[in-house]
Write a structure and sequence with these properties.
30% helix, Spore Coat Polysaccharide Biosynthesis Protein SpsA, Chain A, 5-stranded mixed beta sheet, 24% strand, 12 strands, 284 residues
């Protein structure tokens, strides 16, 4: 396992409940990993006692002072940890790192060996190999490619007939950001910080890629810890509207077509992402 890579599992308020770490071990990961917590965490001593040198504490006030919260004064959000990870990686001498939430329950292959969607998906059993392959792919992308990420369950809704679905990649990144200290960027907005990041960067001609072959699973809802309290306080409208504030030309509020009809951000990708024209079409 390469020494210039590490996994950061960001957590808050639940040192005894970090399913993501269990998932990594079940997928036979042998590389470096750390638990990332802020110095304002009420369970900080629990993290230190349980994880010892594997627990890295960052100064949240430092990132509160330097991060755009887009009008919200809340501080118990993951955005600060996401930005701190770049500095932590540099401190540890890493070139690459992957950010994980603390609530993943499984890593899977979404497709089989014939590139067909696998309905009974298999758990990844060699996470080291996945890391090596993703980094090799990342190194071959242009510097304008800022991050890679695993797919999530919602990315497959609609099946093979859905226009954004397929064996390849989507131009987004959520949760499991694979990043490089040599391709730094900043998360902003106390909620929806991942959507804010990948939409703003791609409107600037940069890339974020969602690798559809690899999938992670999370619980549908969280009732305690993490971001649960903030979501309960503000709801999905405020969460999604931060992305509209940042990118009003191509992002709006809509309603998800599911059983609870909840509000959610909708992105017009024809306006968001830059288009690349083949050199063969260049007019002399």
């Amino acid at each position: 396992m390469r020494s210039d890579f590490g996994i950061f599992i960001m957590s808050y308020g639940r040192p005894d409940k970090i399913p993501s770490l269990d998932c990594l071990m079940k997928s036979n990961y042998t590389g470096q990993w750390w638990i990332i917590v802020g110095n304002d965490d009420p369970k900080l001593e629990g993290y230190k006692e349980k994880f010892k040198t594997k627990c890295i504490v960052f100064d949240k006030e430092q990132y509160i002072a330097t991060t755009d919260r887009m009008g919200l004064k809340v501080t118990k959000v993951i955005m600060f940890a996401r930005n701190a990870c770049f500095d932590i990686a540099e401190m540890l001498g890493l070139r690459y790192f992957q950010q994980f939430d603390d609530d993943y329950i499984c890593f899977k292959f979404a497709f089989n060996s014939t590139m067909g969607y696998e309905r009974k998906q298999k758990r990844i059993k060699s996470f080291d190999q996945i890391v090596d392959t993703m980094i090799k792919f990342f190194e071959r992308t242009p510097p304008s490619c800022m991050a890679l990420a695993f797919a999530q369950g919602g990315d497959f809704i609609g099946g093979e007939g859905f226009q954004n679905w397929g064996f390849g990649k989507l131009r987004k990144a959520m949760n499991s950001w694979l990043c490089s200290t040599e391709r730094r960027f900043t998360f902003r907005g106390c909620m929806n910080e991942d959507v804010n990041a990948y939409t703003l960067m791609q409107s600037q001609g940069k890339l974020c890629l969602n690798i559809m072959q690899l999938r992670l699973d999370q619980p549908v809802t969280q009732t305690t810890g993490g971001m649960a309290a903030v979501y309960k306080q503000y709801g999905t409208h405020v969460k999604s509207f931060l992305s509209v504030m940042l990118n009003p030309s191509f992002c709006r509020i809509g309603v998800l077509r599911n059983h609870d009809q909840r509000l959610h951000h909708l992105i017009n990708w024809n306006r968001c992402a830059s288009k690349i024209v083949r050199e063969s079409f260049r007019k002399v």
